Alpha-1,2-mannosidase, putative (Mucilaginibacter gossypiicola), 766 residues
Amino acid sequence: MICSEPLMNIKSKYKIFAFVLMLYCYSAYAQNVVKYVQPMAGSGAATTPAALKHGAGTELFANTIPAVTTPFAMTQWSPQTQASENKCIAPYRYSDEYFSGIRATHWLSGSCTHDYGSFTIMPVSGKLKTHDYAVKLKHSDEQSSPYLYSINLINIEASVTSTPRCAILKFTALKTDSVYLLITPNSDYNQGFIKVDASRGEVQAYNPVHRIYQGWGKEAGFKGYMVAKIEPPIRTHGTFAGDTVYGDPAISNKKGIGAYIGFKLKAGESISLKIGTSFSSLEGARKNLEAELPDWDFDATVAKSKAVWEKALSQINLQTAVEKDKRVFYTSFYHAMQQPRLYNDVDGSYPQFASVNKIGKLMGGNYYDDFSLWDIYRAQLPWFELLKPSLINDVVKSMVLKGQQGGWLPIFPCWNSYTSEMIGDHCSSVIASAYLKGIGDFSAPEAYRLIRQNAFDTPANRADYVEGKGRRALDTYLKYHYIPVEDSVPDAFHKKEQVSRTLEYAYDDYAAAMMAKKTGKIADHNILIKRAAYYQNVFDKNTGMVRGRHADGSWISDYRPDSKAYYITEGTPRQYTFYVPQDVPGLARLMGGPSKLESSLDSLFIKNEYWHGNEPGHQVPFMYNYTSAPWKTQKVVREILATEYGDGPGGLSGNDDAGQMSAWYMFASVGLYPLNPVSGEYLISSPIFDHVSVRLGNGKVFQIAAHKKTRNSQYIYLVKWNGKIIGKNYITYKNIVKGGRLDVYLQDKPDLAWGANSAMQPKGIN
């Protein structure tokens, strides 16, 4: 029968079978990547060379946590070793000795900010204890993944799995005994409320959110809410404040408040808690719980959460024989999906931005907050421009909504408030980048109105400015075309830092200029594009670096290029000199030409002054692509990938900052980097993987293949796009989103010609 079929049909059936087999093999491979995620990575003090040389204090900690969560969830669930919500104290540190519960946390992953609106659940066996109940932590007793955390405690096994807004916790007795669960709102302000309704098998609680930075200590105008459902029936219950136990079912506004619920369990029996969280109300938490966890099936929830992570992570398929590289990559991907934070309930309710107890209602999409904008505009959000444009659309809409509700675009919006933490005005970059790439359906005129206001105006009401609205020191920036050192920038958490502010405002002005041009605001564009060159006004040609400048135009006399300076943000003049992502060719001209730029970069790396743990340097290794020696980018990037990232607790080179450090790894390891995100250009370097397949957000597939002459090949000598040689050392967003294949050919020795001609390189602002 088969032989009697036409040959064409046989070939067609064979091709179909081969295609189906290929899809099956790809599916099987892609659905087994979550195993590479190492949630403990970054939970300890950094052990990388750059961190040990340049970091100090909290800068030495990546401050990531082993979060059980789903991508961009409202609430993460973390083991707790630190009970405070204070600044720079992550809920979990690998080196801590004691475990004190499982926390429903809103920690900004990898940051040095604070937790807020959090709650902790701690099991206690035997006699009731409401203080001094922490138990010795043994890492051998922990099992950690993105979808499940479990730990064997004294006589109890504790486990947690989650959904975007909810979680199921299970506590299993290892021997017959009394078991108590302590539930505590973690307020450092002696506030909060908790109530046990034993007849309904329910606990309700809230924890008021407070601000830090601008408005430090003030209430943020909303709360973290939780509703917990409990099985089996509660045997005994009460409340406490520290070591004082009350018989009352409810307690509020005392130091160290909490509730306890007690059970008598036989060995192998369990207590289950289904917990819903919300930023809107207790009723919102209850609705979220009913929608996301309608039943008590813990194992099914684990399976669903695992499937969510498999789907998210398998957008990237890697081929390599180096298993550690897979672990670092997929761990980075996991870290990059912690924030921004989902803020709305399942019915669309959310707390309005910078308001007091005002609840809004979305008609569609999601509202997000906790934007570590000084960091994530560089690589983390650009990564998701490619993979999740729908997320970016919601991000931009959320930013615009904040601007409408608060009156001004925020600088660094976290805990749904103005903060003016860090420097710059990078909402402009994020919004302009999305708009220029054609991402989303947000209102471009309204978005530009808000961008323009930040770029040209200062709040008329000083109280608004003090609260964090508007660019810091904009008046002096516009007057002098740089920020002189005489302006101490008093109304900011990061005071002074005048040179760094000038450099970052120049980039934001460039972003605003590009959006102005696209929206037809030509007069604005012409002004803003000139301001994009203001970086030149803090560049001292005598030293070849940026330098603090007085209002009269003279340079400061105390100048040490490799020491931290008050006019530089978290770094040195040498390190910050290279922050001109909008106009690297212009910076090269200031220095005396591309060869001078190359030698300046050489000095930075030879002197070991490159600090990977600080974001303003993240573009620096790729800047050789603007010189006659792009091969040095390939060399330096490979060294950073090998030395500044690992898969253990100390494997991140400083604060991960909401996934920016991790996103740098993802881009660099596949051989790309968006040095200037607004431009839509990705500089090409050498990938460490043999093959990368990216399932883009539009459904197209983008592939990167590395062709090595030997195992150690790392230097590019040829690049092809869809089979044709390309004469550029970068690729554009427009090309990538069409889908296609980038073939990168590598050899052991540097190719001095590839990418070395200025015609092959991105342009500046002219």
The first strand starts at residue 76 and ends at 79. The CA atoms of residues 202 and 229 lie 5 Å apart. The radius of gyration is 27 Å. Residues 63-311 form a domain with the Beta-galactosidase; Chain A, domain 5 fold (CATH 2.70.98.10).
